[in-house]
Amino acid sequence: MNWKIPMFKIYWDDEDVRAVNKVVKSGMQWAEGLSIKEFENKISGYIGVKYCIVFNSGTSAMHALLLAYGIGKGDEVIVPSFTFISTANAVLFVGAKPVFADIEEETFGLDPEDVKKKITRKTKAIIPIHYGGCPCRIRELKKIAQEHNLILIEDAAESFGANIKGKKVGTFGDSAMISFCQNKIIATGEGGAIVTNSRQICEKLKLIRSHGRLETEDYFTTMKPLDYVSLGYNFRMPSVIAALGISQLEKVENIIEMRRKNSEYLNTSLSQETGRIMTPNPPDEYFHVYQLYTIKVNKKYRNKLMQHLASKGIMTKVYFQPAHLSYFYKNKLKYKCRLPVTEKVSKEVITLPMYPMLKSEEMDYMVKEIKKVLR
Ligand SMILES: Cc1ncc(COP(=O)(O)O)c(C=O)c1O
Fold first, then answer.
1. pLDDT tens column, 44-53
2. Whose CA is nearest to atom 8 of ligand 1?
3. How many helices (H) and strands (E) does the chain have?
4. Tell me, what's the pLDDT at 1?
5. CA dist 275 to 63, 218, 285, 295, Å?
6. Nearest-5° angle of CA 180, CA 50, CA 165?
7. pLDDT, tens digit (0-9, with 9 covering 90-100), for 228-242
């Protein structure tokens, strides 16, 4: 579909092209290469942790991380249902059971009170997400994880650069996952990373990422036989992609600032609709990076509003349809959950287009068309 205003546009420049070209033109090392280590060092430096290991997607990164923590059959992991399905699926990949907990309405992240209720003797970990760029109640969740001796893994796929009082998401839990999929804060098409302060987890992740191979040297350029010491996958990020990531990272502050400015513009323009629209309203000292700009409206008007905007060439989307109500979890896995806030919110949310280069005229057009339906 050719949208007048799509959901997102990637922010890119000639430096991105140059960075990719440089690796391509080397005619070597398109898979493993120097840009991988450089990207990892830059990401860990930016987030403020000791280690970063990049992957070919956020999903494979999370899969590898759960394996690295030894989570598997007989274990339970608490996750939101109000998320991209991959958060829950990663738990299934390792043979463990995702247990859905409800969310709270301010951040759309896991509700600490409901998480407490979902803890059993089998619970091994909690995986909260920072929804659409807004930190969740991660400090409260950390306290719960510590009290119950649980692993806390942040799904920070959507929230690169978000922080609470300057402390970046990704530094609260034991480890965190980031995604560089095309609609994220910085994008490499596909790609992901794990950030952690644990050297042990970092070493395990390197093995899982690349066939269980002890990479004492570059496999593709050494004649030495390298040993295989555990089971592993090919979850590697290509170095062409890492080069693009490095170039994207150079622009991250600018990207976040533009997203925040645009979100503020929309907040102000939609503020006269108080009562009809709830605009994003993160708690004080929560630094939202607006990977998504999600509003809430009365469920009576939600679908009508989406249809009207679509007819005007404005794309919108429901982030998220609850995972526990998907065909797979409901019908195949026979999940039956009581998640009243998740189910209510998923009927009220509309995610509007949001990206750095969104123009004020485009936002005015969006607001004008929204008002037509709501009045
Ligand atoms: C909350 C959340 N978790 C996990 C993922 C998976 O990341 P990826 O698409 O890089 O595999 C995404 C990205 O779409 C996401 O939004």
1. 999 999 999 9
2. 58
3. 13, 13
4. 79
5. 42, 60, 25, 12
6. 75
7. 999 999 999 999 999
* Residue 9, pLDDT above cutoff 80: yes
Residues 282 and 196 in one domain: no
User: Domain of 310?
Assistant: 252-374
Say how many domains are in the chain: 2
Average pLDDT, the chain: 97
For residue 362, give the 3-state DSSP assignment. helix
Ligand 1 center to 271 CA (angstroms): 30
Please identify, by atom number, the ligand 1 atom nearest to the C-alpha of residue 129.
1
Per-residue pLDDT tens digits for 256-267: 999 999 999 999
pTM to 2 decimal places: 0.97
CATH code, domain with 129: 3.40.640.10
Does ligand 1 have an atom closer than 6 angstroms to the CB of 83?
yes
Tokens of 326: 């998907």
| CA angle centred on 174, ends 172 and 180, rounded to 5° | 75
